[in-house]
Amino acid sequence: xxxxxxxxxxxxxxxxxxxxxFRRMQQIAVSIFMEECKAFDLTxxxxxxxxxxxxxxxxxATRLSAVIAFDRSTLGSVIERLQSKHFxxxxxxPEDKRIKLLYLTKSGAAILREIIPAVERAxxxxxxxxxxxERKALMELMTQLVDLNNEVSRVPLRAEDALEHLGKAG
Amino acid sequence: xxxxxxxxxxxxxxxxxxxxxFRRMQQIAVSIFMEECKAFDLTxxxxxxxxxxxxxxxxxATRLSAVIAFDRSTLGSVIERLQSKHFxxxxxxPEDKRIKLLYLTKSGAAILREIIPAVERAxxxxxxxxxxxERKALMELMTQLVDLNNEVSRVPLRAEDALEHLGKAG
DNA sequence: GCTAGATCGTCAGTATACTGTCAATCTATA
DNA sequence: TATAGATTGACAGTATACTGACGATCTAGC
Lengths: 170, 170
Prior knowledge:
Two copies of one chain form a homodimer.
Chain A: H1 12-15, H2 18-36, H3 44-55, E1 59-60, H4 61-67, H5 72-84, E2 88-93, E3 96-104, H6 106-127, H7 132-148, H8 159-162
Antiparallel strand pairs in A: 1-3, 2-3
Helix pairs in contact in A: 2-6, 4-5
The first copy, chain A, binds a DNA duplex through helix 2, helix 3, helix 5 and strand 3.
């Protein structure tokens, strides 16, 4: 008899795998976000960056990347795009010549206020097919899983630690 | 009194939002996959493509994109990379000059057999922080949600429909 | 048999996402 | 105070991901 009856390879190796479900759901989430927010010409990551800069004015790019769990290398170009749309400005830090501090412009703060209802519609639509109790259960499990897996990917600092030395704007 | 007491904008608008959790979890999932599979130099998408071509030999690129829910435009370069690694070959379809049929090479089939244990380790690690009952609940909710949201993003055909005319290899 | 419309693979363009590297700068220590 | 090591923003390189457009080709309806 065969020593190891290998299971046959089927598409279930893909469809039932957590990795596929996470990729597919991310795809769907971005698609819904872009649909609801197309009037604002902002991507999900740009939105997250605006929220974070609004919450922590004067944050620098490295700490911002930790706060929104976004790769530092890519963040430069994201900030550049926000800057070219005049939603964000960069000022050199007086006490450290390496750092550039990030601030929302007036129109950056304005678009943030305007886009929030659309973002909330998008977030609601992502979970709309589920029953309320299921939505709650899914969000709790995802929050837990993301939290417990937090050290895995390359985010250099945990979000809380990232803000330790940010002066008064914590 | 104010007409509309806007809630203050905090980072919870990001952290508690489904969109953030899906993006972050996708990030973590890819990171774990690459870590477990680094000996094979295959990305998650390339792995899914190999599985699909193995399961449906002679599939064309458009149908493949539907089966693995992957954008048609990008798939060209994915196939190219698989071809340059000699894991996949493309043959012109005799009855339709537009189409190129996809097949695994011997070394493509071999690497698929070899990588599967590593992929299974990766998939297990993604959910490892949860209790078994929670894993099951999360996978059921995610499967349901992806299924019910299936029409949202740009996949041109549902996976089942994509294979209707694929001859005997269904 | 001709042609309007659909489909195929491909390309250009934009935006993530990651690894690795670099010069400029800062900091802690000897 | 000289300097080794760490940090910062920037860049090159690779790989997704999507929109929109294109020529080649196929198919239906006439």
